[in-house]
Write a structure and sequence with these properties.
This protein is α/β, with parallel strands linked by helices. The protein folds into three domains: 3-240, Aminohydrolase, N-terminal nucleophile (Ntn) domain (Glutamine Phosphoribosylpyrophosphate, subunit 1, domain 1, 4-Layer Sandwich), CATH 3.60.20.10; 245-428, Rossmann fold; 438-585, Rossmann fold. It is built from 19 helices and 24 strands. The strands form four sheets. It has an eight-stranded antiparallel sheet. A six-stranded antiparallel sheet has the order 5-6-7-8-12-13, with helices on one face. A five-stranded parallel sheet has the order 16-15-17-18-19, with helices on both faces. Strand 17 (334-340), helix 10 and strand 18 form a beta-alpha-beta unit. It starts with a strand and ends in an 18-residue tail after the last helix. Bound molecules: 5-amino-5-deoxy-1-O-phosphono-D-mannitol. 5-amino-5-deoxy-1-O-phosphono-D-mannitol binds at residues 293-296, 340-342, 345, 348, 391-393, 478, 591, 594-595. Residues 293-296, 340-342, 345, 348, 391-393, 478, 591, 594-595 line the site of 5-amino-5-deoxy-1-O-phosphono-D-mannitol.
């Protein structure tokens, strides 16, 4: 949520900050702003809307600053307009901040500051921080920042500059910040992509740490004043991974990257045996709880099926946002698996902390290397799916499902139970089968053309493919703004069938399974009510063809692996509908890639 970038050094600062913001735009895109220090004065320029609107501001062209900070916003407090856009300054325009997170006690702090004569200009919680720092600022900026932050409750990743000092200060509690280390230049960002074209050397700031960046270097202290020795990490991917290439949208590129992403999730982990370096004793585990949000929660639902099937250990799934507040019953015999593409989702992180506090064992299934969740779990499985930029998650989802399958099989192996050779062989064939599945893209577009103006969609699946129906419906909602719901196919007759008429497209996941015949009956029930049927099948001879308006054929695989293959036509359907409607596929309205606020 919200993107931050800061720079101090000799490069041209305005284009560097604007380009960095563009790389962070997936984190929020309702307004943007920049504040730079020029001739020991602060100059702030903001705009409503996308970064391109900020970029077009003429005032930017004449600036020649020595440092600067910038922000792209996803509104929490206050509407998306210029006044509420960051950076926020104090009353005297001597200091400016950009902030990611939420200051929960901002209204009481606001009253206090207004009583003391501060003039608060915006409706945001963030502006309060600038005035609090002003309250304490005499000649030591760092001391003022610490005093101010000690009064706040909530989360922050923030950058601070003052007209009097040639430095950038940064502080983190709950919202990610990364320092980029250069030669006689330093960078700050809420995520690596913003600075990757300039440096691959990064330092991850941890909670309660404060960093000071000058042209010559950096220093990091804990809020209690102690210096912290930070490790410098080398980023393994390059700028090309962050470009769209020949694809119209990141989402389409990421859908088409799934053969490689799945291959990377697999790499080195499967031969005759499964190799996961978990370094965690799982022998006493009696229960497994999977927790996540959004698309990752859907992969958790599939994970439950896989874990119970292969390990016979009871598994439960919880929304992280609910788990964290429901006083969960946990013991050291429980394993809590947190699943997150970003590794920064506030609710998932809080659920993890709840589990750790109650002595449960924890495993993270995460894509972003070095993210907060990866640092706080007992052990983890990286997805290695590569950077995912489209707000709607695609390749991370299928990689999560594979990682959960590997975890289930690994636990089975650790329990001394035999691994079926066929499933290992089928897993190794996945990249190839996904490649084949992608060939249906043009055909799916023809279906999308027929249904792009529909007002509603229903998705049906059974067993391990019910969560795939939920995920298909979520993808469509997120990027095409068409109302869609997913149901277990058998539930249809308990309510949703009332919605079915000749205007209702119904997508059925009807690939081979023990319940195929029953799904066929559900299809017939919809057909009897004139609903439009789109079925996903992997059996060329199946009767589905006779009952469906559109049949999407995907390669055959084992039922346990079918969610990975079956998700792909649904991703493509959502993508093509949104694209045909002319919508901003990669940055759907009201959404952001990484939800680091509650
Ligand atoms: O980074 P995470 O996997 O923790 O994110 C969880 C959800 O916010 C995310 O999956 C969201 O639902 C996406 N917009 C899905 O497309």
């Amino acid at each position: 949520m919200c993107g931050i970038i800061g720079y101090i050094g000799d490069k041209k600062i305005i284009p560097l900050l604007i380009n960095g913001l563009k790389k962070l735009e997936y984190r929020g895109y309702d307004s943007a702003g920049i504040c730079v220090r020029e001739n020991q004065e602060l100059r702030t320029i903001k705009s409503k809307g996308r970064i391109s609107e900020l970029e077009s501001k003429k005032e930017l062209n004449s600036l020649n600053p020595d440092l600067g900070i910038a922000h792209t916003r996803w509104a929490t407090h206050g509407i998306p307009d210029e006044k509420n856009a960051h950076p926020h300054t104090d009353c005297k325009n001597q200091l400016a901040i950009v902030h990611n997170g939420i200051i929960e006690n901002y209204s009481s702090l606001k009253k206090l500051l207004e009583k003391e004569g501060h003039e608060i200009k915006s409706e945001t919680d963030s502006e309060i921080i600038a005035h609090l720092i002003e309250k304490f600022y005499k000649d030591d900026l760092e001391e003022a920042l610490i005093k101010a932050l000690k009064l706040t409750e909530g989360a922050y990743g923030l950058a601070l500059i003052s007209k009097n000092e040639k430095k950038i200060l940064a502080a983190r509690k709950g919202s990610p910040l990364v320092i980029g280390v250069g030669e006689k230049e330093m960078f700050l960002a809420s995520d690596v992509p913003a600075i990757l074209e300039h440096t691959k050397k990064v330092i991850y700031l941890h909670d309660n740490e404060i960093a000071t960046l000058t042209k010559e270097g950096y220093q990091v202290k804990h809020m209690n004043g102690e210096y912290v020795n930070k490790e410098i990490h080398e980023i393994k991917y390059s700028v090309e991974n962050l470009e769209k290439g020949n694809f119209k949208h990141f989402m389409l590129k990421e859908i088409f990257e799934q053969p490689q992403a799945i291959g990377n999730t697999l790499r080195g982990r499967i031969k005759n045996q499964l190799k996961l370096t978990l370094n965690l004793d799982l022998s006493s585990i009696k229960r497994i709880i999977l927790t996540a949000c959004g698309t990752s929660w859907h992969s958790a639902l599939i994970g439950k099926h896989l874990i119970e099937k292969f390990t016979r250990i009871p598994a439960e799934v919880d929304y992280a946002s609910e788990f964290r507040y429901r006083n969960p019953i946990l013991t050291e015999d429980d394993l809590v698996v947190v699943i997150s593409q970003s590794g920064e989702t506030a609710d998932t992180l809080a659920a993890l902390r709840e589990a750790s506090a109650r002595n449960a064992k924890t495993i993270g299934i995460v894509n972003v290397v070095g993210s907060t969740i990866t640092r706080e779990v007992n052990s983890g499985i990286y997805l290695h799916a590569g950077p995912e930029t489209g707000v709607a998650s695609t390749k991370a989802f299928t990689s999560q499902v594979l990682a959960l399958l590997l975890l289930a099989l690994y636990i089975r192996q650790e329990k001394g139970l035999a691994l079926d050779k066929e499933i290992l062989e089928e897993i190794n064939l996945l990249p190839e089968k996904i490649q084949k599945t992608l060939e249906i893209s043009d055909y799916v577009r023809t279906i999308a053309e027929k249904f792009k103006d529909s007002k509603n969609f229903l998705y049906f699946g059974r067993g391990i493919n019910f969560p795939v129906a939920l995920e298909g419906a979520l993808k469509l909602k997120e990027i095409s703004y068409i109302h869609a719901e997913g149901y277990p196919a058998a539930e249809m007759k308990h309510g949703p069938i009332a919605l079915v008429d000749e205007n209702m497209p119904c997508v059925f996941l009807a690939t081979k399974s023990e319940l195929s015949q029953k799904v066929l009956s559900n299809i017939e029930e919809v057909r009897a009510r004139k609903g439009k049927i789109i079925s996903v099948v992997n059996d060329r001879n199946s009767e589905y063809k006779n009952f469906s308006d559109f049949v999407i054929e995907v390669p055959e695989t084992l039922e346990e692996l079918s969610p990975i293959i079956n998700s792909i036509p649904l991703q493509l359907l959502a993508y093509h509908i949104a694209d045909l409607k002319g919508l901003d596929v990669d940055k759907p309205r009201n959404l952001a890639k990484s939800v680091t606020v509650e």
